[in-house]
Amino acid sequence: MIEINKCQNCAANLEHRIKGSTQGLFCERCDKWVIVTTYIPAIRQDETKYKIYLLLADSQNKQHIKALAKAANINFLEARKMIEEDKSLILEDKAVEIDRVREILHDLSIKYDIEPLFPY
């Protein structure tokens, strides 16, 4: 009988790993995957359209303006104007793209809100 938790080559214990879009059992001693299947993270399966809104940023901070311009696909002057408005919509998109923008805003300490509730 084959033991699924032991490597067939070296008898070492196998560990469950997830790397990118691969998940399965991995043998550290042999440095190879033993049993593999596709792994799709929940964030990539989420079809919900989320909206990310700007709450607070510094209109004199060029990094803030450039980040907002890139996230909203607008020019520098439009991004500066966006900062001066109340709760401007930066982007409406699926979870993966919202998460990418959220990370950029978070790293620059730009305040934002996401609707509906963002579980990632």
What does this molecule look like?
The chain contains four helices and six strands. By secondary structure, the chain is α+β, with helices and mostly antiparallel strands. The relative contact order is 0.17. Helix content is 31%, strand content 30%. The protein folds into two domains: 1-39, no CATH class; 44-115, Ribosomal Protein L30, Chain: A (2-Layer Sandwich). Strands 1-2-3 form a three-stranded antiparallel β-sheet, with no helix packed on it. It has a three-stranded antiparallel β-sheet with strand order 5-4-6, with helices on one face.
- Tell me, what is the CATH class of the largest domain? Alpha Beta
What percentage of the residues does DSSP assign to strands (E)?
A: 25-35%
* Beta strand count: 6
- The topology string of helices and strands comes to EEEHEHHEHE
Largest sheet entry: 3 strands, antiparallel
Task: Predict the CATH topology of the largest domain.
Answer: Ribosomal Protein L30, Chain: A
For this structure, what is the CATH homologous superfamily of the largest domain? Ribosomal protein L7/L12, C-terminal domain/Adaptor protein ClpS
Q: What's the CATH architecture of the largest domain? A: 2-Layer Sandwich
Ends apart, CA distance between termini: 41 Å
In the sheet with the most strands, the strands line up as: 1-2-3
Shape: elongated
